[in-house]
Each structure stands twice: as C-alpha cells, then as structure tokens.
Amino acid sequence: MKHSISLALFLAALWWVLSGFTKPLLLGLGVVSVLFTVLLARRMRVIDAESHPLHLTWGLIRYWVFLIKEIVLSNAQVVRLILSPSAKIAPHFVKVQTKQETDLGRTILANSITLTPGTVTVSIDAQDLLVHALTKETAQAVIEGQLDLRVPADAEQPT
Amino acid sequence: MIWSEVVAAILLILGSALLVIGGVGLLRFPHFYSRLHAGGVIDTLAAGLFLAGLAFLFGPTLGSVKLGLIFVFLLFTSPTACHALARAAHVAGLREPTQAEEEQQWQK
User: Fold this and answer.
1) What is the reported pLDDT for B107?
2) Which of B41, B70, B72 is the best mutation test for A, with the most CBs of A within 10 A?
3) What ipTM score was computed for the predicted complex, to two decimals?
4) In angstroms, what separates the C-alpha of B2 from chain A's closest C-alpha?
5) Beta-carbon count within 10 A of A98 CB
6) CA dihedral (B49, B54, B58, B61) positive or negative
7) Strands (E), A4-159
C-alpha cells in the first residue's frame, strides 16, 4: 500500500513538473490520470519493493553523490588517455565477484560500472560479473570493489 | 552579463570540449570495445555539463527541474544502451584482439 501511495505522489509531482498547469480542470484531469495509472500498475502487479525501492531512498541518494564523484574522476582518466599521444591502452576482460545478494543490488552495481567510463559490464551470471576495462588502472577500481561496498544494501527485507 | 550566464558559458564550453574529445576518442581508439569507453565520456560528463549549463541559463524555473529529470533519466538509460551494445558484440563472438595486433593498430 505504501508503495502505491508513494507512486501516486511521485507521478503527481512528475505530472505537474512536466506540465506546469494550475487550472482546476487540468489539475483534475491530472489527478484522474495519476489514479488510473496507479490502478493499472496495481492490476499488473508491478508495484513492489523491487520496482519502487522505497526502503533504499536515502541510501540511493547518498550513493548517487558518491557515484557522480566517481564518474567525474574516471572521465578525467579516460580523457587523459584519449588526449595523450603516448598513452598505452590495454583493453581486456576481467571477471569480478560481487557481494550483492539481491537482483536489485546487482543491477545497481552493473549499471554503475557501465556508467563510469573505462569499464563496461558485459554480462552477469549469478555472482560473477564480466567487465570490459580500457586499462589496468580503470579495472583496478572494479577489482577492489569500491562501488560494490557502497551499493545501498537491503536494510529491510522487501515486503 | 550576469554571473549565472558566465557560469553557464563555462559549463557549456567545457561540455562541448568533452564532446569533441569523446569524438576524437571514438576515432583514435582501435577496436569496438575500447571505442565504447570513449562513448562513455559523451554519455555522462559531457551531457551532464551541458544540462547543468542550460539549467544556469534557465535560472530557478520549472525548466531547470525538467533538465534535472533528463539527467536522472540519462543515468538510467545510457548504461543500458552501452551494455546492450557490449553484450551484443560479446554474444556474437567478437573477441578482443591480441596484444600484438592491438599495438600495431594503435601505432597507425
């Protein structure tokens, strides 16, 4: 239930930000479409802790701040490689193990690895990630698992 | 000229420079997988700087909030596209060239 309510609030905020209308008629139509969407989502049974991870909200926000810092740093690394005339790149695949136990955690980790330039997640099989790295240095961060440690863990079991 | 326009100009110029660098990387890097990484620079930092610069031009309006939303959506969609490309190549059996082949290409 709390997921439905939060989805409704989120959709309402999105509707208003994207439209910017304030006329009562249009606001009423907005409310109707939000309620209809929530009803549809409920009937499709897609509202749960996985599609709408409320229990991770604060963890995710803290994680995003860390991730953006990480993205900027690895961007600088790749830009240096592109610009320097003598840089040696050594593209290779590495296999890394993740500590994430939920599908959601693994997805967050894999997407974060892809998002930081210099590393791309190619495939995932249970706890093993196959990652393509541009150089040894960019692979290092993934092997050390700094992102893996920071991914917000499931504090409470999804209900 | 007010200060927010100056900040916007700096961010937009930095973003454009990164776009060019990403393009150079796409041409310079030797093989499919390594070119993917050059594309990553454009996807993340260049797009982010552009959106931030535009947000400074808009000032505190709904437009800026929409730009923020675009950035959040980019954080979700661009790794998906990148992963789809890499996985398609991997599944199709594209292999990484050996060290010798790699260096030969890099010299050209």
Assistant:
1) 59
2) B41
3) 0.79
4) 27
5) 19
6) negative
7) 92-97, 119-125, 128-133
